[in-house]
Structure formats: structure tokens, C-alpha cells
Fold these 4 entries.
Entry 1:
Amino acid sequence: MVKQEEKEKKYIRSAGAVVFRRTPGGIRLLVLRAYKNWDFPKGLVESGEDALAAAKREVKEETGLTQVEYPFGDEYKETLPYAANKVARYYLAETEEHEIELPVSTALGRPEHHEFRWVSLDEAEDLLPPRLAVVLGWARQTLAGH
């Protein structure tokens, strides 16, 4: 029998966005690399913070992008739990900007990420870890309809 505590296990929640832009060559997604790990911009949801607000904050903090729209509002896709008890929620964010700033993190004293790339959906599939496959599939399907 599963204990009630285990059923209600608290996950470490993070929120971010699949940032995309439309180009003559098709949709391009922004991916960021920290060490060997590629991901979309995301970070921890702070106590009392709404997940969408956290996603917007993280996109701005991690990329320097200021002209970002969320054309699908509060629609999101979450990862399955990973690294024991983390769950990441992603929204879709659109920008026309292409210059990315990898700002220095005050906590780390260096940029949080080592590299960024604007990639096609297929390139993203090759770079991103398996835990993001469900998010990428959702983004692909959602953007294909618009």
C-alpha cells in the first residue's frame, strides 16, 4: 500500500519557455547549454510565484530577451519527473529578436549557460535530452497548427 505522504510527494518545480522565432527557413527554437546539457530557458519557481510569471522571469534573466510574446497564453507541457523529484513546466514564447545575452549570474559569478543556439525542430530533437521529448513534441504539434 502506498502511504498518503508518498502519493502527495512534493516535486521541485521549475518553469521556462520554448522560445521560438519565425524565419524564412522555418521555425527556430532557442536552446541553451550548461556544461554538456542542452535545455530551454527555465529555472525554479519561487515561493508564492505563479509558474507563468516564473517562466517569463527566467526567459528574461537567462537570455536578455525583452520583446517576448506568449501567443498560446497559459497553455503548457510538463516533463515527467526526472532527477528523482523535479518537474519542469514549459510555455511557448515567441520573439523576433535573435541576439541573446548570456548574463553573469550573481550567485555563480559567471554566466549560467555556456552557449546558445537557434535550431530547427529536428536539430532540437538531436540536442535535447530524452526528458524533453514530450515538450518538443508538444511544441512541434502546437506550432504546426499556427
Entry 2:
Amino acid sequence: MKEIRIHGRGGQGGVTAAELLAHAAFAEGKWAQSFAFFGAERRGAPVEAFLRIADEPNPIRSRIYRPDYVLVFDSKLLKVVAVADGLKEDGIIIMNTTDEPEEVGIKGHRVATVDATGIALALDLLVAGLPVVNTTMTGAFAKATGEVKLESVTKTIRQQWPGSVGEKNAEAATRAYEKLIKGW
């Protein structure tokens, strides 16, 4: 079983990203569950979402404290959230930033980076005028971890949002997959 923790801000689509990745894993014959943890947060407040992917049913329903992978939707969260807490020794942090992996400043873990915000802006993926990076980060996750195939991610996105919206979001995932920089 692989456990994934997503750190983002309200409105960036972290909960939706966890759901999309769960559906993509399920489409590949895996068991998956996704859920969020937040209170009365508002747009811009830090939120967490969680995802488990396994080869067999999993009865665990708790928050994830020892993730295999951490996705960070906003690099500014590093100043207010200890995103690497509990990350397994061989774990991977996938971060939305224009920085190179070695510039992020996280020591002792593998780091991959992608400019998800830049991709979202280039494709005009905006909600209330703000870039939404969830679909972009699902493509980055596929590339960094290999836990799901890009094809499963883009198919899931197209099923969630048929038509031009789905095509644009699938393109965002594909661009992130192609542009992800692994620091290992």
C-alpha cells in the first residue's frame, strides 16, 4: 500500500486531485481511497487531502502520518507547514514551484518539481481568477512515482469533465508529466 498526503490551499483542488488519482488507480485494477481533512477553512487557507493506493482492499481509514509521497501545491506552504513530517525515508516530495529540486531546501528526501502554476496559467485554468493546479499535479504525480499511468490520469480527467474543459485539464496533466524535474 502507498500512502499519499497532499498539502495545498483551499481552492487549489487538492481534494479533487486525490479523488482523480483514486479513480485513475481504480481504473488500473487497484484499490484506492481518498479523503480530506479540513475544518472551516476558506479559500487560501492550508488544507490536507489524503490518498491510499493498494493492490488489495484496505480497512485503514485514518489520516496519513507516514506518507510514501507528499504533493505540495504551493511552495509558500513550506513556511507554515512541515510538509516532510513523517515522510518515509525513501519517500518523494512533488512540489509546485519554479525552483529546481535542489533549490527547494528540503534535505534528506527525494524532491521533484514542476511549475504547475505556470502550466495552469498558460492553459487558462482559472477559478475565480486564480490558477487551479490539481490536474497539473496529478500528471506530475504519475511521472514522479509511477503509481498510476498518465493515460489513466488523463482518461479520468476527461470522464470528470467532458469536452473542452476536460481536454484542457488533460493537457495540463500531460505537460506536467513532461516537464517534471526529478532531483534524484
Entry 3:
Amino acid sequence: MEEEQKLLTPRVVLQVLLVIVVVPLLPLLISWRWNWWEAWAYAIICILGFVISRRLAARRHPDLLIERARMLRHEDAKPWDRVLAPLAGLGGALIVIVVGLDARFGWSSAFGHPARLTALAVILAGFVLGSLALIENRYFSGMVRIQTERDHRVVSTGPYRWVRHPGYAGALLTYLATPVFLNSGWAFLPAALVSAALIIRTWLEDRTLQEELEGYRDYARQVRYRLVPGIW
């Protein structure tokens, strides 16, 4: 408890509020369209998804949120992930910024109602998959590293029975469905860039785990696919 209190500095609280509350509301704040129900639904899903998943994860693995809160302080984090991890976060914010600008200036034509509802289902599926991965995996760190001080082991239960990186798979679903749900064809540009960064990160992390984490090669032989079953 004392360690958790040390981590909850005003700076950390401000960062959390910025990322978890302000960023999901950016389409509304930028467009100033307060009757935009899709943007409200998106913001609610993001905020509730974060709060509920972290609450459940903390109950199951009390030390996990501390590990994630320290993500920028780990000296043993892989150098390439010090670039890719923040890039993924900034890319996610860039998607909703473009969405807001698109809505404000009318750059794109609207997607059909069936397409938007399908995209909403995909976004929900992405959040559920990512949340299940977080809750299941005690070692779901914010930075790629071998957590020797936490007795790092292979996790092969829950969604890890289907793909080796279900957290990234869930994020990928959300990134690619957001432009459709929020009616922004232009938002596919940052979504494609952040998706590419996510795929590169998945490949590098998987290679690291195979080389450095005991038992991961055997797990990789049992669960063949990294992100998409039947493809990769």
C-alpha cells in the first residue's frame, strides 16, 4: 500500500487523467458536436474499459498496476521498446485527433449505419480481448522486458490459448474499427501507421521472449499464431 501511494504522485494522476479521460473525449472537444452519439459511446467504452479492466486486474494481481505504472523507469526495458511503446500511445491519440478534425471540417463521407454498428462490435471485442489478456497475465508490463525480479513465467491460459499476444490483437481490432465507427476515412492513415508499429512491436517482443524467457519456445510451438489465428 505504501509503495502504491508513492507511485500516485500528482504528475502520475495528471497523466492518467489525460490519457484515460481527455484523449477519448478529443473527438467531441475538437468537433464541438455534443450530440454525436458515436463519439460519446466511444469515450464511455474507453473510460469504462480502462477502469473495469484495471480494477479486475488489481484484484487478481495486486502488483501488476505497480509494474505498469513504472513502465518508463525500468532500466532493463528493451531499447527499441522505449521508442515503440510511446509511439503506439501517441498513435492512438492521433487517430482520435484526426477523427475530431474530420468531423469539424467535413473531410469524409459518412459510413453506413450497418458498417458503424459492425465497427462498434469490433471495438467492444477488442476491448474485451485486451482486458482478458491484462487480467490473465501477471506480467503484462507496459514495456517489453524479462521481469526476473517478479519470477517471470510463460502465461498460456485464458486468451493466450488462442494467440500469443492477445493484448496487441485487441488493440489492433480497436485501432482499425475506430475510423469506421467515428465516420472518418482520413483516420485510417494514423490507424495504419500505429497498426504497423504494433505489428513490429509484436514481432520484436515475440523474438525476445523466445530467446530469453524459459519455456516460451515450447509455448510458441503449441500456440502457433502471434496476432491473427490462421494468418500470423
Entry 4:
Amino acid sequence: MARYTGPKHKLARREGVNLLDKTSASLQRRLNTPPGVHGKKGKRRPSEFGTQLREKQKAKAMYGILEKQFSNMVKKAVKQKGDTGEMLVTLLETRLDNMVYRLGLAKTRYMARQLVSHGHVRVGGEKINIPSYQIKVDELITLSDKIQKTPNVAKILEEKPNLLTYIEREGPVGKLNRMPKREDIEVPFNTQQIIEYYSR
């Protein structure tokens, strides 16, 4: 299955929550109206399966992950000790592309994924071009010297990022201080519904 590349607002409206990296007043007003000519007309109460499916789709859309990758991530979360839902959030948040975004080294997750895929990201001094690479605690993440000098990235690095509690950044270098927990992040999807979807 190909990654969704259509209008981001349409995707957010389909899921009923803001899955985008940035908010806009126009999108917030329209979130409760599904895309299409008829909007709310004829909207039926979803089945349990339908509800679980929507929660899964929200998470995939938010992090920009394809079905096979996401399915494997859920299986990995189930196998680990502890709360499965929290483990899933931890795995999603510690993906390299998401960490680049969370550290403010990129404006959006899409941009972060592009930076990683094109070989512009360094982890512990080594080039890593795999967006799904799982970051470990205290691994240093930065951008290549070359990409830091490009005008759009240089401008981003000048801005003061609003960092979550489990990460830190100084200049162009950031790191994961500890593994994130579910209460650290506001996620617009229900992890329990996702786990149940894959345990059918």
C-alpha cells in the first residue's frame, strides 16, 4: 500500500482530529465535517471494528507509517513486558524521523522523514538513512554540516523549539534523555482500540 500523499486537511477531516504537524483555524472549524459533498449527511454509528479501524488509521496518518510497518510495530509492542499501549507509543515516538521532528530539527514529520531518507541525519556521528531506526537513550542526533547551511534548515535551527520533557537539544544537537511514556504525549488515538484491532 502506498503512503498517502493527498491533501493533509482532507486526511485530518476524514479522521475527525488534527493529525497534522501544524494547526490552522480553518481546519479546526471543519474537523467535525467529513470530506466530500455531503459532509455529515447520512453518517452512521460505526461498528466496534469500524471504531478500531479508525483509531489505527489515525495513528498511521499522524506518524506517516505504512500498514506493514505499523503492524510489525504493534506485534513488537505486544511481545514486550509492561503496558502494550504505552509500549506502542514509545516505539512510535522513538522512531528517528519522529525524533528529528520532536527535536525541532524539521518543521514537519514529512520533512524529517525526507531529511533522514536523503542521508542528512547523523546518530552518534554515523549517517542513518532509515526513518524507522529506533533511537536509544543518550544517542546524539544532529543534521549534517551541509544541510545545516541551507537557508530553510538554518532558519529552523534558529527557532527555539518547544521540547517535550524526555528530550533535550542544544544548538543543532539533540538526544533522548529517557524513554517516553504515554502521559508525556497527547495522542489523538486510542491505543487499546488499536491493540484490539490487531488481536482479532
